[in-house]
Amino acid sequence: MKPFEYTKPKTVREALSSATRHSHYIAGGTNLVDLMKKEIDEPDKLLDITNTLPDQIEVKDNGVVIGAMVRNTAIAVNKIILESWPLLSKAILKGASPQIRNMASAGGNLLQRTRCPYFYDLTLPCNKRKNGSGCGALKGNNRMGAIIGYSDACVAVHPSDMCVALAALDAKVNIQKADGSEETMNFLDFHRLPGTNPEKDNNLPENALITSIFVPKNNFSKHFEYLKLRDRESYAFALVSVAAALDMDGNQISEARLASGGVAHKPWRWTKAEDFLKGKQATAENFAEAARIAAEDTAPLSTNAFKVPLLKGAIETALHTCLTNKA
Amino acid sequence: MSMSRRFFLKSSSALAALSFIPNSVKAFYQDVKEKFFVKKQMIPIQLEINKKQYSLTVDSRATLLDVLREELNLTGSKKGCDHGQCGACTVHINGEQALSCLTLAAMAQGKAITTIEGLADGDNLHPMQEAFIENDGFQCGYCTSGQIMSAVACVNEGHTGSVEEIKEYMSGNLCRCGAYNGITEAIQQVAK
Ligand SMILES: Cc1cc2nc3c(=O)[nH]c(=O)nc-3n(C[C@H](O)[C@H](O)[C@H](O)COP(=O)(O)OP(=O)(O)OC[C@H]3O[C@@H](n4cnc5c(N)ncnc54)[C@H](O)[C@@H]3O)c2cc1C
Ligand code: FES
Ligand code: FES
């Protein structure tokens, strides 16, 4: 690990004004410390924000505000979250291990880097790590890679589970920029597609802080599912995951949400399939058609064609589970 | 050091003399200086481990695991992967299980840390330690201290409703010897 200076700013203002081009904020450290050990990330200053940012979950009339420092476990076991946003809790509990969830912060989860093997191996080309070096995964080992939204420059996927639920639930990200001004971003605009500059995972301005995440009220707390398919039963990143949520009026779907992890550079929303389901009866045929519509837009890489049938099956199964899931 | 001091003097007087150098070049020089001349930082810290206070000075880069093992001779916590993937380094921080290999020692200040050495009460083993012995919860023993720390948390947090639930909540601790059945049985025994 390269040497760095460690400081612990007391206020958001102090944190923002101490940040430089070569500094990093550190929250739970579960991703950053690992990347620093591997010398993939080499900040020369760490700003410890664990006492700087809010770590409360606050209920408002129109939704809930989750402070950026709330630990992943604390969100997942929160009574209000379990009652009104159980999909979020379920997705979090499918991620990482109890130890890591106890340490990981809400803000850090959004900013975790990809798990593409080329990103992690300094001897291999990776445009996300070093733009211009090439994408080794494009024609190499891309089994874990994207099936939609990728470019020739990068086929990496975003590894988060929590973010898939936040994408499905139309969350918003509250940020404070280096100049002190505040901004709210739609969750779907927060992460980005790789295009020609995959070194940027998201649209967070340089040195800005995520201060909190807002999740609006919804009618999805009765019919939801987070289905994560992976190489082992637990403690592994998703090959494909599906967050599904239905707002039901009898057997008729008034609104549907479908999002996936493990398929793209950002948590992916299947909006065409959602539109198809709206107003339809909750039948096996309609669920299968929704899965077909979603999969229609995918284009697998050389070694991950298996992800397409996996995705279709996962969408269908998750939709069926929505009907029986009890919060 | 003399080399870098000379380099610094030479380059900074050169910079002063050549004040017509464009800002972009100066910014580049600043970047180079920041990147290559960061010295290692030693930080005085206080840690509370197994109810004992320790004052020591650590490199900012030191992880809690390295400080426990190398500085304090608390070698019960093991280094398996050093990357958060195996759970061998699991300790309790403020009563919750955490990975000491991904925790910077400087960030563990002001928190109550419990390691495997802090579980027993004098010569009396913790019930979970007894249960691991009784149920063959280990073979080589390398993963065991981490397993026991997670097992204690698993019972404390009430995730012992079924074998599946125990396995899910113990999934952050890998065992190369495959002592999983014994581990699960030990947890079930303590949970009763
Ligand atoms: C072995 C292993 C398995 C895992 N498995 C999964 C999994 O299955 N599913 C899953 O979803 N995740 C998984 N994770 C990832 C884990 O969820 C993330 O590492 C964690 O959420 C990151 O949060 P943190 O607080 O520790 O971030 P840190 O490591 O502290 O920070 C990560 C990045 O975010 C920046 N940052 C942090 N907070 C803020 C803020 N408020 N504002 C601005 N910048 C900020 C930091 O500067 C840094 O660049 C796994 C991790 C490990 C090590
Ligand atoms: S040594 Fe910490 S998780 Fe493996
Ligand atoms: S007992 Fe040998 S690794 Fe678990």
Produce the secondary structure layout.
The complex is a heterodimer of chains A (327) and B (192).
Chain A: E1 5-7, H1 12-18, E2 23-26, H2 32-37, E3 45-48, E4 57-59, E5 63-67, H3 72-76, H4 79-84, H5 86-93, H6 98-103, H7 106-111, H8 117-120, H9 162-168, E6 172-176, E7 182-186, H10 187-190, E8 209-216, E9 223-229, E10 240-249, E11 252-261, E12 268-269, H11 271-277, H12 284-296, H13 307-324
Chain B: H1 2-17, H2 23-36, E1 42-49, E2 52-59, H3 64-71, E3 90-93, E4 96-99, E5 112-114, H4 127-134, H5 144-156, H6 163-169, H7 180-191
Helix pairs in contact in B: 4-7, 5-7
The complex binds flavin-adenine dinucleotide and FE2/S2 (inorganic) cluster (2 copies).
Task: State the main characteristics.
heterodimer; A: 327 residues; alpha+beta; Uridine Diphospho-n-acetylenolpyruvylglucosamine Reductase, domain 2; Enolase-like, domain 1; five-stranded antiparallel β-sheet; four-stranded antiparallel β-sheet; 13 helices; 12 strands; 30% helix; 20% strand; B: 192 residues; Ubiquitin-like (UB roll); DNA polymerase, domain 1; 2 domains; five-stranded mixed β-sheet; 7 helices; 41% helix; disordered N terminus; binds flavin-adenine dinucleotide; binds FE2/S2 (inorganic) cluster; iron-sulfur (chain B); signal (chain B); 2Fe2S_fd_BS (chain B); metal-binding (chain B); oxidoreductase (chain B)
